[in-house]
């Protein structure tokens, strides 16, 4: 079965600094990959997705992610973090069993220091 | 589109009472998912529907939990009787068949059982 690993439970960065959140997946074929963000008290919002083509995908709020098949990774990046980016970030992969199911990672909590 | 709509946003009830959570998916979406989120267990898939039919309810924790989707515009998740350990945030999400699996989440219902 597919799985998603987000090795960092918590990350703290200074406002204006660059950000990279790690995501590794296990999947037998070309995966559908997603990053979601959850602000406090809110639902999950889709940041970006990858399903084919260009391995560098752009998302909302200035985020981007790069799919690296050789490393089974889909890391999320942002060149300059804003205080409003403080939230929890979830990586997800489409379930090979179909049904539009997603397998989510355990999330990375991002704290931004002013 | 208004997005996925959930009601109520907050529910406080006493142990033993029946609780009904409601969800309206995005119009035209074929899949509907119910999740539960807690600090201890993270985001758990409870059940999902395709074209109003339950496909996989293996995540439903106990017989006290039931879910229905009487039509394409409405779903309910019921807990009867409720227990304090059911306290969590419950999310509904919907997705379009034939797409790339992305799910769109509602704002959630925060349930507190005292």
Comma- or semicolon-separated keywords:
heterodimer, A: 114 residues, mainly beta, six-stranded mixed sheet, four-stranded antiparallel sheet, 12 strands, B: 114 residues, seven-stranded mixed sheet
Describe the model.
- The complex is a heterodimer of chains A (114) and B (114).
- Chain A is mainly beta and 114 residues long.
- Chain A has strands spanning 3-5, 10-14, 19-21, 24-26, 33-38, 44-50, 56-58, 64-68, 73-78, 87-94, 102-104, 108-113.
- In chain A, the strands form three sheets. In chain A, strands 2, 5, 6, 10, 11 and 12 form a six-stranded mixed β-sheet that branches.
- Helix content of chain B is 0%, strand content 55%.
- Chain B has strands at 5-7, 10-13, 19-24, 31-38, 42-50, 53-56, 65-71, 74-79, 88-95, 103-105, 109-113.
- Chain B contains no helices and eleven strands.
- Chains A and B meet through strand 6 of A and strand 5, strand 9 and strand 10 of B.
Shape of chain B: globular
The low-confidence parts of chain B are none
First CA to last CA of chain B: what distance?
36 Å
| Oligomeric state, counting identical vs distinct chains | heterodimer
Mean pLDDT of chain A: 93
Structural class of chain B: mainly beta
Strand segment count of chain A: 12
Could you tell me the radius of gyration of chain B in angstroms? 13 Å
Rounded average pLDDT of chain B: 95
Question: How can the largest sheet of chain B be summarized?
Answer: 7 strands, mixed
Provide the succession of SSEs of chain B: EEEEEEEEEEE
Count of DSSP strands of chain B: 11
């Amino acid at each position: 079965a597919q799985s998603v690993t987000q090795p960092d439970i918590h990350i703290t960065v200074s406002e204006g600094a660059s950000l990279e959140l790690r995501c590794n997946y296990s999947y037998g074929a070309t995966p559908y990959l997603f990053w979601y963000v959850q602000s406090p008290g809110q639902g999950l919002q889709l940041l970006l997705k990858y399903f084919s083509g260009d391995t560098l995908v752009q998302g909302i709020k200035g985020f981007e992610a790069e799919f690296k098949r050789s490393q089974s990774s889909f890391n999320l990046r942002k060149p300059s973090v804003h205080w409003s980016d403080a939230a929890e970030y979830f990586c997800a992969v489409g379930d090979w069993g179909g049904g539009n199911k997603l397998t989510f990672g355990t999330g990375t909590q991002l704290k931004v220091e002013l | 589109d208004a997005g996925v709509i959930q009601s109520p946003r907050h529910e406080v009830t006493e142990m033993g009472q029946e609780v009904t959570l409601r969800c309206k998916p995005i119009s035209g979406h074929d899949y509907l998912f119910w999740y539960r989120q807690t600090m201890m267990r993270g985001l758990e898939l409870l059940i999902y529907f395709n074209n109003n039919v339950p496909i996989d309810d293996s995540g439903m924790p106990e017989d006290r939990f039931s879910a229905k989707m009487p039509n394409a515009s409405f779903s309910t998740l019921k807990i009867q009787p409720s227990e304090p350990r059911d306290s969590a945030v419950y999310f509904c999400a919907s997705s379009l068949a034939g797409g790339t699996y992305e799910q769109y989440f509602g704002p959630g219902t925060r349930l507190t059982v005292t």
